[in-house]
Design brief:
Keywords: Plasmid. Pfam families: DUF3703. This protein has helices at 8-21, 25-39, 43-59, 63-82, 105-108; strands spanning 2-4, 111-113. By secondary structure, it is mainly α. A two-stranded antiparallel sheet has the order 1-2. The longest helix is centred in the middle third of the chain and has 20 residues, at 63-82. It is globular, with a radius of gyration of 13 Å. It starts with a strand and ends with a strand.
Amino acid sequence: MTRLHPGAREGYRREMAAAKDAANPPLRWQHLERAHILSQPDPWLHTQNHAAMLTLALRQRDRREALGQLVRLIVAAPGSITGRYPVGNTGRVGAGLMTPMPIPVDLAVLVVVE
């Protein structure tokens, strides 16, 4: 289980802003994935992140990703509240719903693993 590090919220905001300003969809996804890693301990941020991922999937007309994001929207807040989420997971359909993943080094200092 992890908890939200004091600097994680600002890191999340930076990544979400970078996603919004990204020049192309692959870069946008990269920033949303990084924001997801930071958002997992917080029910509200986690849910917001999956809503942004769903929006991007719909804009790209990616049905598989959109369906996966709908499922993740439903389970994001309960998963954060109960601590049942895969630490480091990027939040994308290809990552698997409950697959833990390595945390990027620069984000690891903002993720508190207990």
